[in-house]
Automatic annotation (TrEMBL), chains A, B, C, D, E, F:
It comes from the Bacteria. Signal peptide: none annotated. It comes from Thermaerobacter subterraneus DSM 13965. InterPro entries: Agmatinase-rel, Ureohydrolase, Ureohydrolase_dom_sf, Ureohydrolase_Mn_BS. Keywords: Hydrolase, Manganese, Metal-binding. PROSITE patterns: ARGINASE_1, ARGINASE_2. Belongs to the arginase family. Agmatinase subfamily. Mn(2+) binds at residues 116, 139, 141, 143, 222, 224. Gene3D superfamilies: Ureohydrolase domain (3.40.800.10). This is Agmatinase.
């Protein structure tokens, strides 16, 4: 009905590159969750989903590293989840509700944030289908506080809440270089904690060949895991992180180890904080490589 | 096919606010033409259509001045016209081809630029249907050069080419405050030239009640007609223009005089040149007021 | 204890200019409330209080218009109210609690936002002491929705909640030029609505000489009442507002009419959205003029 | 020697538009003085001369208001005066020395700042040739402090120093809206002070037809005399000034009254503070209009 | 004629640092080509030449790595090539015409872009004199498409056109990490392709000691070959590239191998896209190191 | 007196994180010196102290690398040293006078610049107490010119003046990659010069275990020692420096070697030049690590 009248001449913006599949036939569902309610320093993540989609057109659909092309995948871009203003509980409930159906249908979901709290809702949705889910966190911060400024739900407590959900030993943390002393202690005791992302990816890859073989994985990439020189457009940049190539190597390591990725997110991209516009391109390229690297056989 | 699975939870960005109608039932067709090839000073108009659509959501669909609401109109947002890179002739041909059909179908078109040259293609498309078209130009510049740096087609010559098309006396110029001595001479001789936009609107309104009653009008708004304090995001800001309220008064004046607007454009909005982001909001509000003010009976 | 060791050589930043009084002797208490939870378009108001204080040093303490000097007033800068992240109800409760004491002590309060919802908490605090409070709103938006995206508390509903508190006829709205049709109807029916700020100030001044003589006034200035050319650093700039001199004339008009101002706020200043940095200077100058213009005899 | 080998193909940037005359035949000498040493709030004026020259190419050489063209004038762009770093006295001495010769040769000088202190050096140079010089200051600030932070030479004291030089009654101040109470008192007593620039221009024009007929005038335009919405790129923007058209009307008023302008400057343009880039265009257009409006018969 | 009157006091901006030689005696000719017509994503390269020249003054003329100084070289800065607006064919023709003479005169040319298409014109000019030219491309993109959006000439096809000119095996590509699958296939088959710039430089250096000894080299540096953290100011930044030191090492490797560089360009620097201003400094430093490293004996 | 009335609810900004100690009990005194008078290229260091303090709240007080927490240290934030405008000699005298007392009292001082010249005053103050002071400079530039544009005191000569004070062999220079040939010769002859910061730190650490055991050290960190990708917000960014982790490793190396740090500064941070805001976070993190790493036993 709404099709333009002379198709060859028209472009319709708004989708991630090559995400042209309809929902029914899609293997991957891409969605945005522009949540931004618990920011402590600088804002802008609400613009993440829209700008990452737009930035994807600065890239090619083909990855020379992987020799694969997004055009060979069935990806559905579902748009953004509509969120009520200023209501955190309701927002998380809507995200969870929205994502429950694709997970139930065996589809994989790539969620674009928005602040890190969206991961809590996404993991909740995935757990329904995959009760033995293991979560891999790439992040500059531990995010393991129990409370932050008295609040149990915030970008600084999100992984503690995730840890509550999945249970000890099922959260792998790669990259944290900032947090309270207590958080690092907890990380070392209960999580699987690696300051160095490549070392952590190696360790996890080893397990994927052993005790964790076939386990469903959820990957959450906080863009601030990268050094701020690589991804300055984020709320709380933490100097001293890995460069882009190092991050990709860690992801490739997991993919080559046969990781069964069932869901993922890329969060904390705050485009207005990076006038050079490269952070959203970085996020879009990570999205492309995740989509391409982890698409293999997902046994049910 | 591509409908999201739980409609109430999802938003799909990319359209101008309230432009939800399908093409067949639309009264107005809104389209983008991100052309940017003959820029002489600073670039950015290629981002005009996308950012104006996005900025429209900072506004309401209701105009208290006019006591009308966009939601009461059938508007179709057709997306952007696909343009080849670096090929000016081909680009203009595509724009003209794309717009010919809605004009033929009796629809009105609001085109979002892009640089001012898109007006030439749009007027060409409209002339097919409305051979007696009168063009109203709101602009800081005369744009009446015959050649600019030896080239016949550029943002500085566009209205000369339009004048060639519609013929002497059928181009009304409101607002120009910059140009060559020769351009001002030509403007005074052949066009209908008014430095003051309100004075010009009054004069034209007078004619619309007389000799020009019922004549089809095409309105081209170069955003730089406004003072740069109001619309800094444009390639060649020219200090000394009217403020926003003055511009709207001029438009309302024409509408109240019963102008029969069949097409319009808003051009030269260059969002990257205005980090405050207000220029695209200004453009979106002008678009809203044009859509609302000039929607009356368009007799064929 | 914390005094620097050689006082003449040191500067200690962080306060509004000339706000050097201690709390006990202060006539005015200045406070910040960097709330930002219900933003719908663009963020940045959390930086309002800090940047307005900093910007005040670009101004003089003396107003040639009023021939008065801030150094002649006892002003206490109390700092910012600590707000929990992502918890709207708790945030409003804290602001109200924090402001209740100075109002109880007969002091006047100038609050720097943050988003417009802080006004609801501030009015609540003031009502305790002044049950017959009349609220004057300078704003581009009506802010009279009953719900916004299903939520009763947001920047788009704040004045409806204030109207609920003070009752019909006790809310004067000067300047609104954007809203829903229903909001404008409500504004005209129950509030005191004037699109033109000077006309509204005249009308109110007339009442202050009559039925409203001596009534305690609360003034809320949403910085977006100004045209975006004057104050671009705000979340939802609405083209078509008054310039700076016009706004000041309206304020002077009220002051000359003997308005008994007991509290005020300046909200929605979003410094990161205005790289030229002038919006925070505009806000600081409005703060200075309010402090100077309305300091006369406040009968209890 | 350094001429490019195929002139028609090459452009050599770096000069103000149409300032192509050699020094000997020049009527006007244009020069830059990128001084920036006594900044109290925000920096950037050192980039003024370079960016104003560059911005001039966004304008035409023809002024429709005056119906004159820069190409009809002999203007020499001498480049910038080389200034030592961090040495204020030496810097002022160099500016004065550099400008003494063109004044001695009967040429007129248009100086592009740089901070306002450059006016002191320029007036000193002009006084040698024109001992009866009258200075006209367009400025948001009085700049009449005797000392600022203990220093006698700064942007806040510059016009006091100029007043010391030219003597009481020979300094006309148009536009000031910020200063100490003492400065405004001095302004009213010794200077010729007008808050409103048009009113001041009228008063001066009246004198030019009478007691001041034929007196040599020096005009200093502090760009911050304009409202910050018009010229945000300046160190201490002061809300509440005139718009661009008003400033031009004041200048035209003086020109029509037969003002014998022998020198002028445009100062305090700080391009990095205005990412929209319009402040330097505003400065360039003021420069153009000064050059065109005041070029008549300069009797010696 | 145009010399300033007191030379010691004046600076004349507009040239690259130390490029003070006249054309006849120059060994190197430096020129700008601010072409920008086939941009697909973000614009700004037209400001490349002017800003790179300006940024050069943030650097020293001396390179401690090479222990050489630009002041010891005869460099002529010819300014920018004048380009017609919106006419790609004519623009390329002018660049080629402009550069033909210095190449014919045995001078070396360093061209500052502008978009990458300028390389095509420059190589054409060089081929006249050096029919056995070998081209070395440092780039994030293969640029080997045959058509891009139907056009044969664009920034995405430029090296395919160059390959057409110089023939198989005479194009060395160092650094590409983005392109179509077909482009990488072609790169591997016909070009000399190395993803790793140092590895590629080693391989080429090996040939320069053998089969390619004495062959004339043309070097094109697309600034986006660097990681976007190093050079964010470019149209299509591609995450994952080498850092600055790595790029220099590759250049030094070629220089030490006795490369006979006859021409070079640095393209795609888009200063407006990098508000930190470091990209143009990076480009200026690469220019300095190229000028210094490759100036040895150029046998004819 | 000035305490807010309900302490739990209020925050008072303006100090470096955790710098809550009073002067008497403080081990470290933190002070700002926003000097900016001899800038040659781009300005902004005057905003260094204020923005670094503010940025510190984006970090944690705990360092996982060192397993120490600022909250365990007694740090007094003394505010900024008041500086006269445009008077270099007086400014340096005030900084020296201000810092003399804490040094005399055996406290350690961390100074936040401002431009690099503040180091000269700080070293002068420290030398009074520690005549055998050794200075360690981390910097991209040699800063060893004897004169710069004829001036003996500037950011380009500062370390030459420091060398004059401490004498040959007592200045260690780590990182310089830009300067005149003469400066590098002097650096190699009289200073202790290492292009590679880690290599330099190793060499110095070796001496600290031997001939320099127990010697009082002063550390000056010019933020431009880092690669501009890491710290773009600085006046003269010099491509090709170390990344953040490398810099920290060098500092840790000195700390582990038992360096007796008595004073330090972090200079040339120019926040307005980095819209991403990460440079001030980098500076704040370096400050944190210096405070934590070098706090051990300082024998008198």
């Amino acid at each position: 009905m709404e099709e333009p009248w002379s198709p060859g001449l028209w472009e319709r913006p708004g989708r991630f590159m090559a995400a042209e599949a309809g929902y029914p036939e899609a293997l991957w569902v891409l969605a945005g969750a522009p949540l931004e309610l618990t920011v402590s320093y600088r804002a802008g993540t609400r613009w993440g989903p829209a700008r990452i989609r737009e930035a994807s057109y600065a890239l090619e659909t083909y990855s020379p590293h992987l020799d694969r092309d997004l055009e060979e995948l069935a990806i559905h871009d579902a748009g953004d989840i509509a969120l009520p203003l200023g209501n955190l509980g309701q927002s998380l409930a809507r995200i969870e509700a929205a994502l429950r159906r694709p997970y139930a249908g065996g589809k994989r979901v790539l969620l674009l944030g928005g602040e890190h709290l969206v991961t809590l809702a996404a993991v909740n949705a995935a757990l329904d289908r995959y009760p033995d889910l293991v979560v891999v966190q790439l992040d500059a911060h531990t995010d393991l506080r129990d409370r932050y400024l008295d609040e149990p739900y915030s970008h600084a407590t999100v992984m503690r809440r995730v840890l509550d959900l999945v249970g000890p030993g099922r959260l792998w943390q790669l990259g944290p270089r900032s947090g309270l002393r207590e958080e690092f202690q907890l990380a070392r005791e209960q999580g699987r904690f690696y300051h160095d992302v490549e070392e952590g990816a190696d360790a996890l890859a080893g397990q994927l060949a052993g005790p964790l073989r076939g386990v469903p994985l959820y990957l959450t990439v906080d863009i601030d895991v990268l050094d701020p020189s690589v991804a300055p457009g984020t709320g709380t940049p933490e100097p001293g992180g890995p460069d882009f190539a190092t991050l990709l190597r860690a992801l490739y390591r997991l993919a080559r180890a046969g990781a069964r990725l069932v869901g993922a997110d890329i969060v904390e991209t705050a485009p207005p904080l990076d006038p050079s516009g490269r952070t959203e391109i970085v996020a879009a390229k990570i999205a492309r490589e995740i989509l391409l690297a982890f698409t293999g056989e997902v046994a049910q």
